[in-house]
Amino acid sequence: MSTSFVLKSSVRCFGGQQNQYEHYSDTLNCTMQFSVYLPPQSCVGTPVPAVYWLSGLTCNDQNFTTKAGAQRVAAELGIALIIPDTSPRGDQVPDDAEGAYDFGLGAGFYVNATEAPWSEHYRMYDYIVAELPALVEKELPVTQVRSISGHSMGGHGAIMIALRNAGRYQSVSAFSPIVNPSDCPWGQKAFSGYLGSHVESWKDYDSVELIRHGAAQIPLLVDQGLSDTFLSEQLKTSVLETVCQEMNFEAAIRYQDGYDHSYYFIASFIEEHLRFHAQHLFD
Amino acid sequence: MSTSFVLKSSVRCFGGQQNQYEHYSDTLNCTMQFSVYLPPQSCVGTPVPAVYWLSGLTCNDQNFTTKAGAQRVAAELGIALIIPDTSPRGDQVPDDAEGAYDFGLGAGFYVNATEAPWSEHYRMYDYIVAELPALVEKELPVTQVRSISGHSMGGHGAIMIALRNAGRYQSVSAFSPIVNPSDCPWGQKAFSGYLGSHVESWKDYDSVELIRHGAAQIPLLVDQGLSDTFLSEQLKTSVLETVCQEMNFEAAIRYQDGYDHSYYFIASFIEEHLRFHAQHLFD
């Protein structure tokens, strides 16, 4: 086992550096890549707070990095962007037998799998919550002041992780999140595979259930496009609205007319999300 | 031959629409795709001026569309972005025998080929100057007030086309342009293939030669990264500087420390380029 931490590429972007790193993950038992945007402030040695970005199904660390246009605002605000992959990777990592896009590689769902053969590698929850930030905060000019955001499956991951780790994140936001994975086809397929049929255990990874069971307040912003073809069957934003109202959990849940599920939607509103996080990161 | 003009996709982006179209090009004798960003102003029916973007080697209409982050500024300024492909396309279009990245498909170099077998399809100069704007201005809420910009091979295309068509464009800009294709390996390979060995004919497609022979002044902005690995052998920005000084041709030629040849460089400065064009488009 190697403990190497290697800079794979480094490109100037908005006065900072867009970097990609490779390391061996003890949590996931495989070699992982992730991307980091270091704003100009951190490139001259000043540690900066970070927004962790969790991507959606089929993505790796490159989708957000190349398409969201987040670096411009991160550079202005002095925020690092930490962009992990969405699942363990490598030839030794099991994948869905039929290569489905919504299970296995590219679809880790940010849980710690308990079922064979997934449990040896599919531990994205621990990777995102513990191993990756410990590595980043040790090796890079990034502080322990964190916020978290994500898209679709990654929106589920961001909200769920923030709700379960009170005090570890200053704020959370999401684009088009899967808010109630226990009750939608994508989530049920993933949780059945990774966590097995004991549905009680699914609640620990379900944002709606976590709020229903009294999760502590954290600043939360959600944007959902009204032309998103996944809204009614998979994302079900209204279920999050309802439970927030029932539990008196404050959340800014916004519907955006005409926007779909794509990175064009993320690009259109990422500035507002980063400014929202900055309010709390620099509080 | 079909004369169809089909909307292939339309996605909301920064309050406007990011569209992709398909049409049969009489100039290129093949079916072409191109992308257009229509800002909010044009979506309610007000025709807007346009910036034409010419991409570099290996690109199609998607690279700039997904990676440059230009839509945000175009939406604010009320400018349409017209983003064509970089060569004719399709099974019937001849390609480099070895599938080289710098000749044939994806590498049209914005010339009208005179040599067989290229001359039947590789007529990107006429496509960009005449057929595409005529189509766009007839079918879309876009005026005849145009500027033009591009990257690398597309930076060559933008400057060369603007210099040869006085009055047709209000301004021109380029990132990392090939300024003197007659005197660099990329340009010599392409011009030899498309135009043949009569090097005198190459000068009509060479920005440095066009300025040397008295091209009329047009507002020109160039950004070139100093960590661009193609700078010394292929791009040779200093040759453009020299001929501009010799000919008293005004140009803002800027060197950007630490930036490479990638879309991260374009994303970092596209706002300044669009604001430069807006000054002249709305003059």
From TrEMBL, chains A, B:
The keyword Hydrolase applies. InterPro entries: AB_hydrolase_fold, Esterase-like, S-formylglutathione_hydrol. One of its GO terms (cellular component) is cytosol. It is an enzyme of class 3 (hydrolase). The active site is at S152 (charge relay system), D228 (charge relay system), H261 (charge relay system). The keyword Cell membrane does not apply. GO terms for molecular function: carboxylic ester hydrolase activity; S-formylglutathione hydrolase activity. Pfam families: Esterase (PF00756). Keywords: Hydrolase, Serine esterase. Belongs to the esterase D family. Serine hydrolase involved in the detoxification of formaldehyde. This is S-formylglutathione hydrolase. It comes from Nitrincola tibetensis. The lineage of its organism: Bacteria, Pseudomonadati, Pseudomonadota, Gammaproteobacteria, Oceanospirillales. The gene is fghA.
